[in-house]
Amino acid sequence: xxxxxxxxxxxxxxxxxxxxxxxxxxxxxxxxxxxxxxxxxxxxxxxxxxxxxxxxxxxxxxxxxxxxxxxxxxxxxxxxxxxxxxxxxxxxxxxxxxxxxxxxxxxxxxxxxxxxxxxxxxxxxxxxxxxxxxxxxxxxxxxxxxxxxxxxxxxxxxxxxxxxxxxxxxxxxxxxxxxxxxxxxxxxxxxxxxxxxxxxxxxxxxxxxxxxxxxxxxxxxxxxxxxxxxxxxxxxxxxxxxxxxxxxxxxxxxxxxxxxxxxxxxxxxxxxxxxxxxxxxxxxxxxxxxxxx
Length: 293
Description:
The structure is a single chain. By secondary structure, the chain is α/β, with parallel strands linked by helices. It has two domains: 29-116, Rossmann fold; 139-273, Rossmann fold (3-Layer(aba) Sandwich). The protein is built from ten helices and eleven strands. The chain has helices spanning 6-28, 43-58, 74-86, 105-111, 123-130, 139-150, 170-178, 199-202, 254-257, 271-288; strands at residues 2-3, 33-39, 62-68, 92-95, 159-163, 187-191, 207-210, 227-231, 235-238, 246-249, 261-264. Strands 1-11-8-7-5-6 form a six-stranded parallel β-sheet, with helices on one face. Helix 1 runs parallel beside helix 10 and helix 6 (139-150) crosses helix 10. The termini are far apart.
């Protein structure tokens, strides 16, 4: 068993991004600029956004956080997005999910200019990704492919099983792994909450990518010997063992599954760190006008 070490890969790639950002800043006369909108005070969202802002600063990007209370109206939020769409000094724009119930997340996602959609959630980016055209790829799937590439994991001709069909991870991940790219060229099975006897499929996976949001859902008996296991789960539970007062658990029961795997991601220290890298790479590409003019 070897670790797919998100900390090592993200640090390496962030150094490369920082060097490229410094060069680009000289050309543009300004730093690449990411704006994040945060609505309300959800604990997880606060943590994720703070990490994104901190990482932007670390690689030499400019970052701006715009905050709204839960009481903000959908119209007010859409108006703010429109202003940022028109601002030429903003390269990337993200709205942290989840949003309060009175705001339609689909409407918000579609309101973001697809040329600034560095989260990769806009239908134009998702459609272009499916057709293997230049686009912004959703940050978590993008980060996973960067990690597989870094470690030289062979994917062509392998059976990849993706557990979870969210628009953010599972569905785009299944498309990426099936595309005629490297990593890619897999035969893909997509499982979800309505799949009967999920173990029947996971036991056949050469590459198992799990994003179902349930602590320790994948157990050792569900994994084939020698499988590559990518755990996207970030399940937060209160804990007296840690300074922060909470502990993170993956969707994979790490201790018993790890010995059966050829490669496996830890939680924390795996996919979460690579998600940030995917976001930074998309922002750099947006600043360069590399994908869309």
